[in-house]
Design brief:
Two copies of one chain form a homodimer. By secondary structure, chain A is an alpha+beta fold. Chain A folds into three domains: 272 residues, Bira Bifunctional Protein, Domain 2 (BirA Bifunctional Protein, domain 2); 138 residues, YbaK/aminoacyl-tRNA synthetase-associated domain (YbaK protein, Alpha-Beta Complex), CATH 3.90.960; 96 residues, Rossmann fold (3-Layer(aba) Sandwich). Helices cover 26% and strands 30% of the residues of chain A. The first copy, chain A, contains 15 helices and 31 strands. In chain A, strands 3, 7, 8, 9, 10, 11, 12, 21 and 24 form a nine-stranded mixed sheet that branches. A five-stranded mixed sheet of chain A has the order 16-14-15-17-20, with helices on one face. In chain A, strands 28-27-29-30-31 form a five-stranded mixed sheet, sandwiched between helices. In chain A, helix 2 runs antiparallel to helix 6. The interface between A and B is large, with 49 and 49 residues. Chains A, B: GO terms for molecular function: proline-tRNA ligase activity.
Chain lengths: 576, 576
């Protein structure tokens, strides 16, 4: 490609609505252009990256035996009604009526359509397993679109759907996709981590997220550096810290006026925060025969620990819980928030203690009386043994659940997700096959997504500096830029530029020659901003010594390379 | 590809709603699957063809200097309101509201968005010319979707938009695109014709349509076999037939009771139809200072000729015309439809005669009296000379407007369109650039579309037989199918099949081996229906003589080819 025939449009300043670095740099590099809230045109430079992402995904999906098809963007509401998602999905699902008043969804994902395709095509177990995927435009009407391609409304996604005859088959298909994803993210050249995830609302029996590691990432990833344990914060199991010691103190009520937080209580009492316990009051409403009854729960956590709401929802009896209101707290505990505690509540409540809180002795908690806490509290002696559950977020240094070391935490950006769906969709849509005995059975499904356009944002959040983007070779809009200095003045430079350009193209290098006639500073600034990973400068002075200047995007200085060796040198840099 | 790992799903019968052969065959071959009215999933076999179409388009567009970007499917209404198309387009434009109640269009085309991109990016004539294209999903809410991919609602289209500083530049860009289209359709391997077209509602100054030739085509294409004249029926100029002879008969009123059509009048009078003239009464309403006034026109055509409404609309004074009502005909001519004629109407009317009708002598026309016609009518003698205009569709045998022969007519399916838009969009959207004198000028635009998914239907309408589809090599889902006979019984067949499969893949042939273990009849029927253009059969009997059977999809019989020569033989067939 010649820069004079390409469309390059860089900006010195990012627009003010670009809050994060990847959004700022993509706008400044002219890769995307805003059309509306969360809706972008992918300009030629940006589209080149998208096509590279897509090509790698496609190759690895095909290699794994998945078959590409293309499902529509506009999908009849009837299918979404069959699974109940037409109602469940709320305002995020963009809905549209046609000229006859019929309802359609603009697809945010395609479980319904693929299940509809398969239920009419698959008759027998002999046709299984099967894995269909597509790379398609999707729309999610986000409440607050932002961060450029990271949380846009219109985006491109690869979604794949596997169909198997039994759970073992589904797990095998899942494993094949997991391995394909590892190959895909390795080929992208991004640092990433696959973590176990909670299955959430979609249901099913197992899932992993693929995260691009970046200090700016929204998600906390938990992993064990000395084993292969990795999970997201929602899913990472927190083991008990320590073992319960013997009671050494008597329980005592102490005045703590105005101290409603564990840290201020600990400070007042001159104790470490880890000697305190915080109490969270929950209410679960149940309706039976038209009557609503309320059950009250008290959750206990060590003062320095954080509640994990996903884990709370999994405790027996706590599905559908909510935080208790102040009125309920007054009624049940006879006090105000900030002084709650598990000792002798006014009404009967179920006390659920986190594993670590359940292991504590001589601890401090609220006294169920305004301006008072209890010290020296001990399970079994001062109050009954609690229900014990994993309720908290892990912290750095926790023991790894696999017993093989201690946990570390890093930040990540979710760009892929693999799910074991089981029969969540096939059952509601009647997608069955005939098994070996001629009996209908529901298809066992898996689904597997990669946010194609999101990859761009995530890759930049991981790879940038103060000059701009630093693309990994595999994703760069161009692998190499050739910068001739004074091409219009120097015949020698021009001839060498044309020759090297031709040789690099012949060697399969994705090269752009900057023949725009810009001054060196402006030329270099453009390519550093755009993030082309390799640069060769052709100058008259160097040519006199038979040399060209190579500089990697992250290199501090240039390397002089003899003209005749440059193509081989570049191939070496690109690992070819 | 191995057929056992691909998804092949053929049908003996097409669904009853498939009216035309391409729709029937695509459904039977399992290339598409209906999701809703005019909305299809492209199944793996169909998507392979689409990808081949897209790849050829992309290569030739890039070669011509056009730059690929990707504009959104969901587009803000504001842009469509700027050009007035939000109101003009009616129900075909699919409209959607987001969660905040803002209006969006699901794009049927992208003139507005690309003009918006360019008006903010282009400052100077130095940045021109520029040509942006994308290949994207589009939606048109057709009143009556049918014919499968030929008139679907969701479809894929390549649309390109050129931007130039002046008309000469626009025409040059147009010529570059025209040439690219010729290369594209040649590479598809389809018989096609580029014809001059009317610019229609989109406005502008010149356009051509690209049609795939097919006897089932909706459109009539006019061309001159001995020159390069070609136009669609709307645009093809009709010259006068013959020259006017001298009057030889006296005008006479003859009774023609119940004969309201030219052919029945001619039959009654024992004259050729070409001696009759038909009269069409039109009304044009004009509003001035709140008052509506009516003007009446009479169009005259030779009895065997057809009116061309596009041409009528271009006659001075006839913009906005409509057919006169029976009440108006009674008022103006004092008679009923069927007996109208240009001689002595009751009220003053403008008589416009087609060039050929204006050349007639001693002709027959209505007498403006029920059950009577006039014979021996002559211009100048019996009535004033008419306004003369081209009003009719050409017919086979007409003189070519370029004076180089006579016209022929064939049927075609429109799959591409190139337009000179001029400033139709740039003016309404304020898309200007600064010219050499630093003055703002509107961009001169062209637009260029190819119906990607429609190509599939058109290619099939041109290439099928009673067994199924006959793809040209360049578009076939697979170039060649390898059919081993009794692979499971014969080790020799299996070994040979695997070896040839590997060799063909290594030679770059897009080959599928049918390892499904079907019986020959069923296997062959599948591939003939799917339309794979080349087939090699591996059988035990042939192998004993060192031979394999090659059969082209259109060949009447198979050709025995020595095993060692087969790869070279196939490469020859594929022109490699």
């Amino acid at each position: 490609m010649r820069a004079s025939r390409f469309f390059i449009s860089t900006l010195k300043e990012a627009p003010s609505d670009a809050e994060i670095v990847s959004h700022q740099l993509m706008m400044r590099a002219g890769m995307i252009k805003r059309l509306g809230s969360g809706i972008y045109t992918y300009m030629p430079t940006g589209l080149r990256v998208i096509r590279k992402v897509e090509a790698i995904i496609r190759e690895e999906m095909n290699k794994s035996g998945a078959l590409e098809l293309l499902m529509p963007v506009v999908q009849p509401a009837e299918l979404w009604q069959e699974t109940g998602r037409w109602d469940k999905m709320g305002a995020e699902l963009m809905r549209v009526k046609d000229r006859h008043g019929r309802d359609y969804a603009i697809q945010p994902t395609s479980e319904e359509v693929v299940t509809d395709v398969v239920r009419s095509e698959i008759k027998s177990y002999r046709q299984l397993p099967l894995n269909f995927y597509h790379i398609q435009t999707k729309f999610r009407d986000e409440r607050r679109p932002r961060f450029g391609l990271m949380r846009g409304r219109e985006f491109t996604m690869k979604d794949a759907y596997s169909f198997d005859r039994d759970v073992a088959g589904m797990q095998k298909s899942y494993g094949v996709m997991f391995d394909a994803y590892v190959r895909i993210f390795n080929r992208f050249g991004l640092k990433f981590r696959a973590v176990a995830a909670d299955n959430g609302a979609i249901g099913g029996t197992g899932s992993h997220e693929f995260h691009v590691i970046a200090s700016t990432g929204e998600d906390a990833l938990v992993y064990c550096p000395s084993s292969d344990f990795a999970a997201n914060m929602e899913a990472a199991e927190a083991l008990a810290i320590g073992t319960r010691g013997a009671a050494a103190q008597a329980m005592e009520k102490v005045p703590t006026p105005g101290k409603t937080k564990c840290d201020s209580v600990a400070e007042l009492l001159g104790l470490p925060l880890s000697r305190t316990v915080k109490t969270i009051a929950l209410t679960v409403e149940k309706e039976e025969e038209g009557k609503v009854s309320k059950q009250y729960f008290m959750l206990l956590l060590r003062g320095d620990h954080e509640l994990n709401e996903v884990k709370v929802g999994k405790v027996a009896g706590l599905a559908g819980h909510r935080f208790s209101t102040e009125a309920e707290i007054e009624e049940v505990y006879g006090t105000v928030p900030g002084y709650l505690g598990p000792v002798a509540p006014r009404l009967p409540v179920t006390v659920v203690a986190d594993r670590t809180a359940a292991n504590m002795a001589d601890f401090v908690c609220g006294a169920n009386e305004r301006d008072y806490h209890l010290t020296g509290v001990n399970w079994g002696r001062d109050l009954p043994e609690p229900v014990v559950a994993d309720l908290r977020n892990v912290v750095e240094g926790d023991a790894s659940p696999d017993g093989k070391g201690v946990l570390a935490i890093e930040r990540g950006i979710e760009v892929g997700h693999v799910f074991q769906l089981g029969t969540a969709y096939s059952a509601s849509m009647g997608a069955t096959f005939l098994d070996e005995n001629g009996k209908p059975a529901p298809l066992q499904m898996g689904c597997y997504g990669i946010g194609v356009t999101r990859i761009l944002g995530a890759a930049i959040e991981q790879n940038f500096d103060d000059k701009g983007i630093v693309w990994p070779d595999a994703l760069a809009p161009f692998e190499l830029v050739l910068c001739p200095m004074g091409m219009d003045r120097s015949e020698a430079v021009k001839t060498q530029a044309e020759q090297l350009y031709a040789e690099l193209k012949a060697a399969g290098v994705d090269v752009i020659v900057d023949d725009r006639g810009l001054r060196p500073g402006a030329m270099f600034a453009d390519w550093e901003l755009i993030g082309v990973p390799h640069r060769v400068v052709i100058g008259e002075r160097g040519l006199k010594e038979g040399k060209l200047e190579y500089q990697g995007r992250r290199d501090a200085a240039a390397t002089a390379v003899p003209v005749a060796e440059m193509v081989g040198f570049i191939k070496g840099k690109l690992g070819r």
